[in-house]
Amino acid sequence: MSAPRPQHAALLQFEVKDDSLYIGGIPLARLAQRVGQTPFYVYERRAMTERVALLRKHLPTDVHLHYAMKANPMPAVVQHMAGLVDGIDVASGGELHVALDTGMDPARISFAGPGKSDAELSCAIAAGIVLNLESEGEMERAALIGQRLGIQPQVAVRVNPDFELKSSGMKMGGGPKQFGVDAERVPQMLRRIAELELDFHGFHIFSGSQNLKAAAIQEAHEKTLALAIRLAQDAPRAPRIVNIGGGFGIPYFPGEERLDLEAVGANLRRLLEEARPQLGQAQIVIELGRYLVGEAGAYVCRVVDRKESRGQVYLVADGGLHHHLSASGNFGQVIRKNYPVVIGTRVAGGPRETASVVGPLCTPLDLLADQMELGQAQAGDLVVLLQSGAYGRTASPAAFLSHPTAVEVLV
Ligand SMILES: *Cc1c(COP(=O)(O)O)cnc(C)c1O
């Protein structure tokens, strides 16, 4: 008889033996003993390494891969990624320091994000990383700070494109946006860059996030390259970098299909062959966060209490939305859906039941699993939320209700 398959088999990135999850080759219960506390986040090196290898296999070989570290800024994770990818994208001065500590060549670190302070600009210019300018005002401030420091800032222009990435979880381009400079104003900005003491590197065009549709990404790649070629005509020099964004999504919910990476890669290869004569030597960059680390991580908490209310089973855990806002459905989701959840030592076998997993916070929002089919669990059992390697711990309101924070381990 074959072993029972968990409900989330398609989303289970980790090994299962004797109905227990193994992460980094360690049985979950043993891992929890090793960590010494719940709740914790665990990230697996192997899964990240394999994910980068998969991208290398399908994307054109001359495309550079950057890690957008806001998805998971744990220094050990960023260090591991630094050994696998071609560059790191940061979005704050704090992230910049972590990225520099990895030893990554500063020329391969870029800094995007609105509202960069003078202090952040100053550190970035001194470090020699590439600033993705988010506005004309930021351009002027960067030039002044560069003058004051006696260092020429390395800059690219973040463009708010005149199109959207269709069917995206989060749209970050097209229409009015706080990100980047509207495409139609970029030519004028490029003329100003030529007048200022700024070293122009190229363009950053990021249109959206969490996209599972190859056709939408293919369309965005085509429009992005066309836009870069058009804008390059007004640039003070030929662009050395064209960052075409990312937005590759991962499946979280039942019915979601994996992104067809092969199709995206093949289409991009064709587009780049066509565009090469006009793009010259420009390095094409794809920047990804979630796609690189999201599936490599899990959030683990422990059942503290098991109770019933009017016929429904509640597993009350020591973890909740204060560590994992996204799994509670409150991180930009319109409709709450269950993340893939398993009982760590009863992944697919044993008696099953329908139960809800809630956290210790005094709010009905603190819901990690709403009436899911799970292995029957008691106090002391480990609850595991899969697909939790991105936008987990650092995207959650840890101070809310003053519970202890979650620790993180990389295995
Ligand atoms: C957040 C962000 C990313 C990463 O997005 P993912 O969906 O995690 O891949 C990449 N680039 C920019 C500019 C971002 O703001």
TrEMBL record:
Database matches in InterPro entries: Ala_racemase/Decarboxylase_C, DCO2ase_PEP1, De-COase2_C, De-COase2_N, Orn/DAP/Arg_de-COase, PLP-binding_barrel
Annotated source species: Pseudoduganella violacea
UniProt family annotation: Belongs to the Orn/Lys/Arg decarboxylase class-II family.
Active-site residues from the entry: 362
Cofactor(s) the protein requires to work: pyridoxal 5'-phosphate
PANTHER family: DIAMINOPIMELATE DECARBOXYLASE, GROUP IV DECARBOXYLASE
Every Orn/DAP/Arg decarboxylase 2 N-terminal domain range: 48-293
Superkingdom of the organism of origin: Bacteria
Protein name (Swiss-Prot/TrEMBL): Diaminopimelate decarboxylase
Keyword entries, A-Z: Lyase, Pyridoxal phosphate
One record GO biological process: lysine biosynthetic process via diaminopimelate
Ranges where the Orn/DAP/Arg decarboxylase 2 C-terminal domain occurs: 40-389
EC number assigned by the record: 4.1.1.20
MF (Gene Ontology): diaminopimelate decarboxylase activity
Pfam family, one: Orn_Arg_deC_N
Entry-annotated residues carrying N6-(pyridoxal phosphate)lysine: 70
